[in-house]
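User: Run a structure prediction on this.
Assistant: Running it now.
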Amino acid sequence: MAIKFALVFFFLVAAIVLADRASGACDATNNMGKLLPCRQAAVKNGKDPKQLAGCCDAVKPFSGSKDAADCLCQSLLAAQKVDKTVDLHSAIAIPAKCGIPVQANLKCNGMAVPQH
């Protein structure tokens, strides 16, 4: 009986995780950790992200679609709430500084996202 319950629980959790990923849900809190290599580029007068190990690679998954760019914006806004030194203007410029294309006319919290 316990094995059946464990199997049902496992498949239920797996289905929820897969449904969440399929829906394109953005996990801004988790993404903050993924974007830590860019921390020194996301402040006013910050470093060039190309000179920070892993920064440009951390931003790449957020390119390619409006949903991905919106998720990057949500993640940067979440980071800004936790760390007041995060400068949104500097942070949203990181993809362009890394040479990573983003869709035209995107905005993050009312600010235009710079183009590559």
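The first strand starts at residue 107 and ends at 108.
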